[in-house]
Amino acid sequence: MANIVVTGASRGLGLEFVKQLAKFNKNPKIFALCRNPQGAEKLQNLASTCANITILKSDMTSFDGYKEVVSNIQKEIDSGGVNILINNAGMMLKDTLTSVKYKSLIDTFELNTLAPLLFTQALLPLLKKADESTLPLKVGKSAVLNISAHLGSIEENATGGYMSYRLSKTALNMVTKSAAMELKTSNIFVMALHPGWVKTDMGGEQAPLTAEASVNGMLTVLSKADETYRGCLFTNKGRKIPW
């Protein structure tokens, strides 16, 4: 059985990842991490209908708490490892050069950049223990998927704006690239995906894409990924985004 960890799973893309992954043919065990499990009604309802979903409390900016989260995951999977980590938790502010504040930069970097980096680091022993035969992918024995954004592309930035968000996602892209290179010898695959402009609490009601369509697209791209995707950023439709 594959073991999959999803951060920011209480709503939006994270919740949709849990929904769709729960339908995988290999019946994976899914660890849905969220800051407030008691308030995550939709996630709780989903877990009540699927025995393979385990909800764990985790504030992704409480870095000192990662050890306990990883320990709780380890208890559930016994001697096994984690096959897929989806670093999904994130935030976005619509700040600009003239409005951006120090606090907003720190808060955004902590959740969008430092959390994926440090949580991957904390989970690395379990990623290394994964059994290649249980991974529902073409590459590696385990995989790390960072949810990044087209707004993090320096080359394709034509409008500016979203200052703290852009900076954090550009940095996350470097985390993705460096981790992918460092973990290649461990047979751990790392890539980043842009979900598109999605109709979620973050994206707003005017967004053209549903969470269902976005996640379906990202999982399709992930299922087709080979070594040429390692350390790269792709859209949910499979286009490679330049840095």
What does this structure look like?
It contains six helices and seven strands; from the N terminus they run βαβαβαβαβαβαβ. The protein has helices spanning 12-21, 41-49, 66-77, 102-128, 163-182, 211-224, and strands at 3-6, 29-34, 53-57, 84-87, 142-147, 188-194, 233-235. Belongs to the short-chain dehydrogenases/reductases (SDR) family.
Unreliable residue runs: none
Quote the average pLDDT: 93
Which structural class should the secondary elements be placed in? alpha/beta
Inertia-based shape? globular
Distance between the termini: 35 Å
- How many strand segments? 7
The biggest sheet, with number of strands, parallel, antiparallel or mixed sense and barrel status, is: 7 strands, parallel
Provide the gyration radius in Å: 17 Å
Series of secondary-structure elements, N-terminal to C-terminal: EHEHEHEHEHEHE
Q: How many H/I helical runs?
A: 6
- The percentage helix is 25-40%
β-strand percent reads: 5-15%
What topology, given as strand order, has the largest sheet? 3-2-1-4-5-6-7
InterPro entries: Fungal_SecMetab_SDRs, NAD(P)-bd_dom_sf, SDR_fam
Organism: Larinioides sclopetarius
Pfam families: adh_short
Keywords: NADP, Oxidoreductase
In short:
The chain is an alpha/beta fold. 38% of the residues lie in helices and 14% in strands. The protein has helices spanning 12-21, 41-49, 66-77, 102-128, 163-182, 211-224, and strands at 3-6, 29-34, 53-57, 84-87, 142-147, 188-194, 233-235.
Descriptive keywords:
243 residues; alpha/beta; 7-stranded parallel sheet; 6 helices; 7 strands; C-factor; oxidoreductase
